[in-house]
Amino acid sequence: MKTWPLWIGAAIVLSLIVHILTVLLVPPSVMTLAMIRMADADADTRVLHTPPPDASARTVVRPSPDLAYSICLFDMAEGPMLVKAAVPETYWSVSAFAHNTDNFFVVNDQQVEGDTLELLIRREDDEVTGFDGIPVSFAPTDKGVVLMRMLVTDRENYLELDPVRRNATCETLTR
């Protein structure tokens, strides 16, 4: 009796199991490790403004040397989060990532009306009042990361723009 069809079938089943487990387990694991690193740097209590990236920078995965990064963590179990940031006169974006690494919100400098972004991140079942007219994004997971990026063309430009990004806030609203 030929056993090779059985071995091929077993290999296919094993490959499918490994693939499914990888897709389901790796993204949350990567985000958990990144969030632990950020929490160690106090990104869970304030906005963390990373220094200009160099070869050893790894607070942000694969950082670009042309961007200045600011990061804050959110935990919807503690309450909704209000993000405020000034929009500079250069490329700038704010992205929110769920715990499974899904990007659920993004906006850039061309899409914001005015010179300041105010964004409310909350769960579907949160009832929040007093924030009429502020864009709302619904977090698909309780924990995640808000990442702000700003284009920096040279050292002088960095020194000019750094104070602008340092005015960004991520405030957890109490329930």
From TrEMBL:
Gene3D superfamilies: Domain of unknown function DUF1254 (2.60.40.1610). The keyword Membrane applies. It comes from the Bacteria. Residues 48-162 form the DUF1254 domain. Keywords: Membrane, Transmembrane, Transmembrane helix. The chain crosses the membrane at residues 6-27. It holds the Pfam family DUF1254. This is DUF1254 domain-containing protein. It comes from Candidatus Phaeomarinibacter ectocarpi. The lineage of its organism: Bacteria, Pseudomonadati, Pseudomonadota, Alphaproteobacteria, Hyphomicrobiales.
